[in-house]
Specification:
By secondary structure, the chain is mostly beta strands. The chain contains four helices and nine strands.
Length: 177
């Protein structure tokens, strides 16, 4: 995997990560959000299984997702106010899609290639790190570092509520490697 910066326009409350197998049953034009992703229970089923991993960002805007491999430096961890750890399963198509959550409301499988991260099949820990943007409010020009670390087994997350990047920051202590 090579480093990649994704400019992602978020029109609603968040973003999603997934691999091809997770959306194979969603047909063009389906409102998967209303039908299967609009309750906490719906989201948790997907997130905790590593299929369609939704992340609440709370604010629309133009986000810069800085995709990196491995684990971040101690300095980046220490200097990031918002931290969230998730897991995802990647199928034999070797791709992770990074998309606007609202795309689930009127499904179109095709998306811009800039929103696709090429990785090997397997299980990944996804670590998101961010801070308040320099402009003073969330959303526009907000950088989110997304570190992907390959695992031998699926590490089941145990979220009890929808993963929220802004609310997670003070609760996560990350081990030093």
């Amino acid at each position: 995997m090579r480093e990649k910066d994704i400019n992602l326009e978020v029109t609603g409350m968040g973003m999603i990560l997934y691999s091809d197998h997770a959306v194979v049953k969603i047909k063009k034009g389906d409102n998967f959000f209303a039908d299967s992703y609009s309750t906490v229970e719906d989201v948790l089923k997907e997130v905790n299984s590593g299929k369609i991993v939704g992340i609440c960002l709370e604010t629309p805007g133009q986000y810069i997702i800085k995709v990196r491999e491995g684990f971040p430096s101690d300095e980046l961890i220490d200097n990031s106010k918002f931290k969230l750890r998730l897991s995802i399963e990647v199928d034999e198509q070797n791709r992770i899609y990074v998309r606007n959550l609202d795309d689930l409301s009127d499904w179109e499988a095709a998306c811009d290639s800039s929103q696709i991260v090429d990785v090997e099949k397997g299980y990944y820990t996804v670590l998101l790190l961010s801070n308040m943007p320099n402009i003073g409010y969330f959303g526009d020009e907000q950088e989110i570092y997304m570190y992907l670390e390959r695992d031998d087994v699926f590490i089941t997350p145990h979220f009890k509520g929808i993963p929220n990047l802004r609310n997670a920051g003070r609760r996560v202590n990350l081990p030093l490697v």
